[in-house]
Amino acid sequence: MKERVKMREQDPIERAKNFFEVPYGYTPEEAIEEASRCLNCLKPACRTGCPVSVNIPEFIRLIKDGRFIEAAWKIKEDNALPAICGRVCPQETQCESMCVLNKKGQPISIGNLERFAADYEREHGEIRLPERNKPTGKKIAVIGSGPGGLTCAADLIKNGHDVTIYEALHKPGGVLVYGIPEFRLPKIIVEKEVEYIKSLGVEIVLNAVIGKLYTIDELLHDKGYDACFIATGAGLPIFLNIPGENLNGIYSANEFLTRANLMKAYLFPEYDTPIKRGKKVAVFGGGNVAMDAARVALRLGSEKVYLIYRRSENEMPARKAEIHHAKEEGIEFLFLTNPIRFIDDGKGNLCAVQCIKMELGEPDESGRRKPVPIKGSEFEIEIDVAIPALGTRSNPLLLKTIPDIKLNSRGYIIADENTGMTSKPGVFAGGDIVTGSATVILAMGAGKKAAKAINEYLKWKYWLFNK
């Protein structure tokens, strides 16, 4: 059986000093070679592992035949953001995990092939717009321009509806622009994917904080929208809640990455957003956001970056590729370690963190073994910047203006898993605002489901409410 075609990457020593993309992408020859490994299964399981149901076997067959542009068009029938998904989706736990080649070797590199097709189409200027259904006269407001909002808007516009996205920040893209670093997802890629969504006819209104500018009720009743899709994500950071957390030099991962990614703090003073460049930095957490924060800190010139995680490596939720890249670049991992207090230098600045060693006990509600402190194992690490990357909660700014929408005990919107429908008529929701922090592709899947449900809702809305 042929070996999987590995994607060439920047040298770890070099890339740790820059913000350029780490993997180079396939050449046409490499893409054809990798696509040729596909067995063209009669019952392809890979497609069932894709949250947006891309026709994986067909686009791979087109790449194998050298029909790269057509492969990109095939992907875009189901996925409006292929260049993004090819870079940041956890294919190893989704489509690739279902590949039959897993039984005897390595699965087809579906993500790398998706990236190749999307990049080839963009670089060769052959963007093709799909046909739109005839106008329905219906208007939908999408709140948030992250992956879920963009996906929902793209599907709705193709069905003939008028769609407006309201974005709170000054650039569209949501987590794609403020959360994911340049070396994992170049912002020019996001810009091009957003341009494609706009070319379909979607209007994007920036600097528009729904809940402040308009309420959902005002959109539905005063602005004439027939339905709303809430895709605001979960942007309220979670902190450690330990002594000393208000010292200078402590950032939430949200703030740290937003400053670095969206506001280009790494190019200061060319961009006037400052960020503290610590000599010794500690990042707390084990997910992709923690990996991103640690690798950004390293690129900002830190001499030492620690990744501190209270469980073992086996329990880390981050993608294996991100852990591998972080290790290659020199991030020092401290497993089974938990912070218990931050230490003041006497002037209000962070100078160290006191930690305690942990051991794994019985599984908790997440199914992972619960970390338990080891008495008497406290120790200190000298640091001047700390970045908790412990996940996020739903931001109450919008939700407190919708008192008639049901929330769960954690403050997330309760929405039907298959439709995104909420307790408020005409209001749908999906992505992190419903599930809590998850992945880009799962948010996209929620956007697709909601678009389909909104399309159906608009058919019977007036019959239902005017009986």
Can you walk through the features of this model?
The chain is built from 16 helices and 15 strands. By secondary structure, it is an alpha/beta fold. The strands form four sheets. It has a five-stranded parallel sheet with strand order 3-2-1-4-15. Strands 8-7-6-13 form a four-stranded parallel sheet, with helices on one face. Strands 9, 10, 11 and 12 form a four-stranded antiparallel sheet that branches. Helix 3 (56-64) packs across helix 6 (110-123) and helix 11 packs across helix 12 (288-299). The model has no long low-confidence stretch (mean pLDDT 94).
Derived structural class = alpha/beta
Strand content: 15-25%
Mean pLDDT: 94
DSSP E strands, number: 15
Most strands sheet: 5 strands, parallel
Rg is 23 Å
Q: pLDDT under 50 segments (min length 5)?
A: none
Q: How do the strands line up in the largest sheet?
A: 3-2-1-4-15
Number of helices: 16
Please bin the fraction of helical residues: 25-40%
Instruction: Give the CA-CA distance, first to last residue.
Output: 64 Å
| Outline | globular
Break the fold down into its secondary structure elements and pairings:
Elements: H1 12-15, H2 28-35, H3 56-64, H4 68-76, H5 82-88, H6 110-123, E1 139-143, H7 147-158, E2 162-166, H8 175-178, H9 187-199, E3 203-205, H10 216-221, E4 227-230, E5 236-237, H11 253-261, E6 280-284, H12 288-299, E7 304-308, H13 320-329, E8 332-334, E9 337-344, E10 350-363, E11 369-373, E12 379-382, E13 385-388, E14 392-393, H14 396-399, E15 427-429, H15 432-435, H16 440-465
Parallel strand pairs: 1-2, 1-4, 2-3, 4-15, 6-7, 6-13, 7-8
Antiparallel strand pairs: 5-14, 9-10, 10-11, 10-12
Helix pairs in contact: 2-3, 3-4, 3-6, 4-6, 5-6, 7-16, 11-12, 12-13
